[in-house]
Amino acid sequence: MAMVGGAIKDGVHFSEHEVKTLETVMPIEQWEENFNKYFIDDIDRPWKPVNKYIDFSTYDDILTNQGFGVFLIKLNLKILLNHPYIYLKNFLSECNIMWAIGRPKDNKIWRVMDTGGYEKDVIRYTAYYGAIVQYVRLIQNHPIFHSICGRGGISLFIIIMMATLLITNHKKILLLALSPVIIYTIMLSLAIPAQDFRYVLPFICCAIFYSAIIFSQTSSKKD
To answer: What does the pLDDT read at residue 220?
Structure first.
């Protein structure tokens, strides 16, 4: 849905049938209005303003039983083939936190709540949360720390560099150690819902430990 909304915002024109089908979910102008190039959630989640236009009580039925899901997939493919620049531009914006080292100026940053400031009747906050709040605020308020600890660009570069060195140093078997994070990265890039660093935290942590693979030595039989 986000890619379709982005295409409409970038001036891509659809056929009368395609417009009519899109409007079975919400008015065509709202596809553009609710598109956020950094937050996929904004266009298809019931807790977002888009709930004023989408009837989420019937949306699952429209998506699965009335063929709208298949229609969206085909429309995405059409946009990709006919307007690859627009599609890839919007796609890379959506997963920006995964590959970009710095945060774009027009991309808001998620702020942590004060202890007990959110659903305090449901969630019991501990001293550990208070420490995490201070750590996250340190990351958010210092661009260098934020790039290293709050975004995936540097870590992704390290992982790619490690994979390249393993191949050139004839240690391809060790790429198996990288395969989980590689698969996770590919799958996440296709479905990341928001620019929240919790989604990239796994391969940030992995990059730290996997870096030791570069300096590993093959043990001899005597050892």
So the answer is: 57
Return the closest-CA partner of residue 95 out of 152, 164, 138, 43: 152
Return d(Cα 174, Cα 213) in angstroms, integer: 8
Could you tell me which of 42, 63, 46, 64 has the C-alpha nearest to residue 54? 46
Q: What is the C-alpha separation between 131 and 133, in angstroms, rounded? A: 5
Amino acid identity, position 187 = M
Quote the CA–CA distance of 135 and 148 in Å, as a whole number.
13
Sequence-distant (≥ 6) Cβ neighbours of residue 21 within 8 angstroms:
68, 71
Question: Picking from 17-26, 59-68, 105-114, 139-148, which range would have the lowest pLDDT averaged per residue?
Answer: 105-114
Confidence at residue 222, expressed as pLDDT on a 0 to 100 scale: 56
Q: What is the mean pLDDT of the chain?
A: 83
Q: Let me know if 159 is exposed, middle or buried by CB neighbors in 10 A (0-12, 13-18, 19+).
A: buried
pLDDT tens-digit readout, 44-70: 888 888 888 888 888 888 888 889 999
Give the span between the Cα atoms of 40 and 181, in whole angstroms.
Answer: 22
Q: What distance in Å separates the CA atoms of residue 98 and residue 40, rounded to the nearest whole number? A: 14
Amino acid identity at 69: G
